[in-house]
Amino acid sequence: MRLSDRELQIIQAVFDDREFELLARDLVITTEVAYRAMQKIYVKLQIGSRAELIVRVMSEYLAFVADHEEPETSGLSYWPLVSKRRPPEPQRGRTTHAA
Hints:
Elements: H1 5-15, H2 20-27, H3 31-45, H4 50-68
Helix pairs in contact: 2-3
């Protein structure tokens, strides 16, 4: 995926679930410019919705992580690069068995 810095900012706003009005205000652009930029991203990535954008970016991200993963890391330990929230860590050393 080859995207400009501005396009990456817009994609981050999508992950943050910001609407065009807030996105435009934060990036100091008009709502129309934000909308056109999103349409360019859709064309560039050959997608048609925010949901498809999220799926595409996560797929690319997970493929990148899989290619660059170090032996001591696993799962979504790189999650903070995509979101400020981190998924819960699995409990280690404790197992529960159904009775």
